[in-house]
Amino acid sequence: MAINCKGCKAYCCRKIGLLDPTLDRGDCVCKHLDETTCKCKIYESRPLICNTDRLYDAVFNFMPRDEYDANNAQGCKALKELFIEGKED
């Protein structure tokens, strides 16, 4: 149940400053986000926090993969709802 980012509006990238201030361009949005295309400008060399597969292998492999994927999907859904409902800070 890996996350399908196809068609995503980069909701996680628009709040990356909450998780990694070094990626924040000053407004909580990732400095590597191309807002026109909603794609990462450094996708092939993106940081660990932005690569769910590598992050699982490096940090979260203590939990079952399906649980990890479900947690990520839940977080993704919550961010999307936050933006759609206009409740983002």
- Tell me the total number of β-strands: 2
Largest sheet: 2 strands, antiparallel
Number of helices: 2
In percent, how helical is the residue content? 25-40%
Sheet with most strands: strand arrangement: 1-2
**Strand percentage:** under 5%
* Radius of gyration from CA coordinates: 13 Å
What attributes does this structure have?
globular; mainly alpha; 2 helices; 4% strand; 89 residues; two-stranded antiparallel sheet; single chain
Q: What is the strand and helix layout of this fold?
A:
Layout: E1 33-34, E2 39-40, H1 52-60, H2 65-84
Describe the protein's architecture and organization.
The structure is a single chain. This protein has about 90 residues and is mainly alpha-helical. The chain has one domain (about 15-85). It contains two helices and two strands; from the N terminus they run ββαα. It has a two-stranded antiparallel sheet. The longest helix is centred in the C-terminal third of the chain and has 20 residues, at about 65-85. The mean pLDDT is about 90.
